[in-house]
Amino acid sequence: MALPNKVKKLLSDAELLTDYKDCSNYFYKWLQNEFSKQPVGNLINARAEFIDRLLIKLFHVYDLAHEPDLALIAVGGYGRGELHPYSDIDFLLLVTQQPSEAICEKIGQFVTMLWDLNLEIGHSVRTIEQAIEQKREDVTFATSLLESRLLFGNHIEYEKLKNHILDTPVWHSDEFFLAKVQEQQLRHKKCHGTAYNLEPNIKENPGGLRDLQTIIWVAKKHFRAETLQELISHGYLTHEEYQELLECLENLWNIRFALHLAAGRSENRLLFDHQPLAADLLGFGSDGKASVERMMKRLFRIMSRVRELNQMLLSYFEQSILPESSEQPVIELDRNFERIGHQIRVKNPSVFFRRDQLFVLFEHIADNPTMTHIYPSTIRTIRQVRRRLLGDLQDYAACREAFLRLVKHPNGMGRAFTLMHKHGMLAAYLPQWRNIFGQMQFDLFHAYTVDEHTHKLINNIYQYFDKSSANKFPICCEIVTRMDKPELLYLAGIFHDIAKGRGGDHSELGAVDAIAFAKLHNFTNSDGKLIAWLVSNHLLMSVTAQRKDINDPDVIKEFATRIKNERQLDYLYCLTVADIRATNDNLWNDWKNTLLRELYLHTQRALRLGLENPMDQRDQIRDKKHQAKQRLLNHGFGEEQIDLIWARFKANYFTAFSEQQISWHSEHLLKADLSQPSVVVSNEAMHGGTQVFVYSPYSGGLFARLVSVIGSKKAQIQHAQVLTTRDGYVLFSFVVLEVSGEPIASGRVQSIKRGLDLALADPRKKIRFKKNRSQRFKDFNIKPKIILRPHPRKDRSLIEIQAVDIPGLLTKIAEVFQAHLLHIHAARITTVGERAEDFFVVSNNEYQALTDEEQAKIHQALRKKLNAETE
Questions:
Q1: Phi then psi for 500, rounded to 5 degrees?
Q2: For 418-428, how does the pLDDT look when each residue is reduced to its tens digit (9 = 90+)?
């Protein structure tokens, strides 16, 4: 692609720094304007040519062009002649000997000028010996030299270096191949082994540009191939696969180019911030989520194809470069399949004309846990069969039988299921799976596409059956040992989100799909109904645990009534744990584990007692008091002392807290001077998190001060309760965690306690709270939802707030309450992922319910404050 004449002239005439900047600015505007008009390959070549001309001119300007022992060499992507708008410019200055002080000064001026032009450069000055030594120690540097290109200078020294790269024993083909494979494995591991992150890295993710480049690097080193096309003549690529790789490469280039333009800098992660503009630049439209969905589905499909081709080609390369890898014994599995090492191979590709044999292949993988991969020639065959399929595989009775054998196989939903997902067999079998492949999820919880989230959920369920997972999933591992039909749990997992992206309630739509699947596969009516019930109610348990008071007998009775029996409770609990843990790597923590476990145990007890004999609240309080008192008596406290303390509390205190918390609070209060505010922070995790308990005379701004202190200590409030006592005091209970989701580190407990003590002792002392708002929040355009309702008590009002859990959210809410002189009588603070759902029972300054006028003012003030924080 030739540069525009105006760019050439501006560069030729440039003398001052401002001239070079003007030329650069004009060129970048030209790149942006041309992006929608011509192939992206032309543009990335054009930028490389522009940088070539710029470096060569500056080489002359700083009198480096006349140094006979100096060569300017482009390396890496720049060496390939491929530069995206803001890609780094990597070059090597090759010298025959250590440069003199005068030459070093010129090189310094040359590099400084490039920095002044705001170019991101990576450069080094090396002799041939130094370059070879670094190449020996660093495979990344060795790789960059493979793609080197002489820009200007001593071509003899450059040719010597180039010959060294290919001909010297440093990094033999086999060593180079193994190093690049290991490098790729580590790169994939950092991405959690999946391409389907909602904010994927276009270069580094599995199926990204690096996977394509790895193929090219190995081909250059071993076969001395300069292009992918040469692999056709070597017998590694078909012409169709070559065209497919070129198409994938161009698509990835397009998306990366658009990403650079959207970000205005070198950026490889397609962050939520940049997705809408990138989608618009790529021609997917500007209609918000819909255009982003179209772009991301295209991207994930491309990455899936690249990853599959990468695996196939690297396996072929392994056989050629490491001959001993193909010398493993061949073990016959049946008349159609055989095993070679850890791979399975089809003997005759025509076998797949019987479509059920596609699933028999995966059955063999389930039968042989050490068989982890599919032989490259068989991958090629599967790809060809997949393209020629007419209709869905589930339309064939034999395929349905084979699929169900896999679902019921003890190992069928492990490695076999992963490979089915990876190689497109699930999408070929279930038409609904094709719809969720690469489906984005526009919320603050999920880190993966719908299909990848579901794959991870199935993997979690599979781990329940592994005894080594007992510490990770204690209740689930115990439940599945008595589960009569685990396949129903797996199928509920497959269908739980399968209707996402269609509009409407995905739980209800998915339940309809599950019923249809059950009928087609000849399940009994009761089994089909259980799968559908699980899909329809898969959010019920997490919503109840995280949004309702699970210590309230009425809540448990209502939940148990919907669950109906222990069998459904067992299945739903196992599905819920797997679902939350598959959502993202940060959402699950001990606090959520504790909530779900307690809800499960409370409900199990209610079901065993019988729904017609619910546990009375008075019975619950009596039991808790008895157990808590026994603990306190064992610690040397007298019964009269205990009863005197407990007389301060209302009945709702004893329903809100466990016997462990009640005894912990009481032990502290029995030792404290109750004429003064009192604070205690648990040194160890209790009920899934660090507990903070504050007992103090009531004052209007106290809640705001406490949450501000906790926020200033970079701790996250997961749950909070505010209760008033009979004697005019108020108690606050918080469950707090580190940002990582772990309980507060033991070394920080006293710091939090000191901060709370100071806030209570000196109400006028300012609390410094540094905001650290994430840019991620604005990408979802989620506006706070504020609802004011009457409360059962005539002198109270209920305020419900749903908002993004920005840092300092509770402080902002409390500041509004304080400004309007509201009294907080009770509160329930719940954090679900990165969404806060908070409930407050309040009254006005005269201890009456809020008037209509007061409600309107508070609603407006909250909306203004919270909207300002999320914009």
A1: -65, 145
A2: 999 999 999 99
